[in-house]
Amino acid sequence: MALTDVEILFVEDDPIFRHVVASFLQGQGARVTQACNGYEGIALFSDSIFDIVIADLSMPGLDGLSMLKQMRDINPAIPAIVISGNDVMSDVVEALRIGASDYLTKPIADLLIIEQAIIQAMMSAATPMNVSGQFHLQEMNELSYQELTDNLSLLEQNAQAAKSVQQQLFPASHIYYPKADINYSLFKNNDISAYFIDSTMVGDHHLVMYMAHFSPEDNSAAFGCVLLRSFINQKLKLFRNGLSNTLIEPKNMLTYLNERMVKSGLHIHTDIIYVCIDLSQYLLSIGQSGKGLRCYLRNGNILTPLALPESAPLGSAMWDKPSMQVRTLLRDEQICIGTHFYEHKQQLLDNRFTGLVYQSDIKAGGFMQLACR
Known about the structure:
Blueprint lengths: L6 E5 L3 H13 L3 E5 L2 H10 L4 E5 L7 H11 L5 E5 L4 H9 L4 E4 L6 H15 L4 H22 L6 H11 L4 E4 L2 E9 L6 E8 L3 E10 L4 H21 L9 H15 L4 E10 L4 E7 L4 E6 L2 E4 L17 E6 L5 E5 L3 H8 L5 E4 L6 E8 L1
Helix pairs in contact: 2-3, 5-6, 6-8, 7-8
């Protein structure tokens, strides 16, 4: 049997679903330890050795996402699969970001899907850094991407679903990292924002941030946000497994994102500025595709635009390569990305950081700022 002697920790608060899945997995040869909530899951994970964790994200008390973060601190090498039945895409994306191997959505029509997900996750965790390992990880990424597109295609037709999912992807207006802070404001005139920002720590020394503008400016922009986060999460997982540095290489990352956008067949064009800073040296590497956004160095009340030539947007048949610049961020400087409108630049200089807001009397767009400390 495919799962013979596999030690599984299954954390699920629904006793019926937990029993059904555990019985199936035991029938496939696995040894399943069950927990009914996140606190029990942490206690079992701390006291025993497991090959894999399967966790529901929506549980009372300690939710699945908080539990997985604690498990990662205890033993980051153990793969995890998350199950979501509450349509909270932000939790799914965050779970993938912190290292979950895959996600499944309830209801699960065929329990063999769980078995296949377990096999893929364990193969990925056990695969050494070689050619066959790279092939398997690429195959796994393709499967995850197909599932993502299958589950989110409704966003193009359903405006309310698109609005709900997109709102969950935006972070708070103030984001605090070791040695750096990120603040932003984005203004939208419709239910869906055609602009998106995101950032993440990559290892102990690198921080990446980006701002993107999607065309057309309709429901597909919400789909573009989810795709972009998903593609970046895939590279983040590879980085954590020691298999790729693409995420901290803006030129290679934008090349990868363009390939994935083109391959999606969704005809979404994306202007983007992508910044990686090495916080140990304050070395900036900046890449730009498209022409609708600007990158600035800020010193006090002075914004100095960086010389980044315009290029084709991601997803365009005319795309060739991004514009690049490498420089050191000086002590009193901040790096900013934004739209070129005067009112946006003035709000940036006034330090008016509000996160994502609906405001009909100001042009759509906005700005983000990274300040080291």
